[in-house]
Write the structure tokens for this entry.
Amino acid sequence: MKNLIFLSIFLVSGIKLFAQSPNGISVVLNGTTTDLSGSVYQVAAPVPDLFDINLNFINNTNQTQQWIVTRKRLNVPAGWSDQLCWGHSTNTLAGGCYGASNLNPWNSPIADIFDVAVGEYGKLKAEINPDDLTSGQALYRYYVSSDGVSFQDSVDVQVDFTASLKPVKEDINVSIVPNPATDYIQITMTGIESASLRMVDVFGATVLKENIGSSKKLNVSDFNGGIYFLVFDVPGKKSFTRKVIIRN
């Protein structure tokens, strides 16, 4: 997608629904200790690119678990996409990565089920990609289970995204009338709001300086007849020149 511009991700802790997960499973954001099991974790998305959310599903039960992960899209704006990676905590490559956008719910393959001993955890990297021009709020749910049907624990992830409105590009047009001129010239511009103007004769001497807006009337009745050049300097843009003829 799209022009890549990197901005910071602002994370807000979810609302805790359980003081401690009753099934002995904890879900924490990587690098933190707050248990998000059964809660809603809120994320303000960066603009406008794909970003990651890293969650760990920790086995605090009294026996080894066999886990796969399931992702369900509860409410997602049109045009958004997502994928995820899922693997054991000892897997430095973060397990398998899957383009999970087309199925709802989506399960990691049963063939990829792995054992999670007591105190170990499964790593989930959810990748969310909001549509550049679609503001909205998305809600995803991530479950762990041994079969993709009988879920043992889950966490909801709410993503808020405000699309950046891209300015409409407008060409710069300049009208100079009358041309040739005797008494005055009327300058009218579209595509820019203001500019610095220099009027230069054929020898390169500046005979007039003005700051102008979208429209300006200049008195040229005192200038000698001949060819002049109007040089427009616009902040953030390349300077441009127009020729005007004065007959006096």
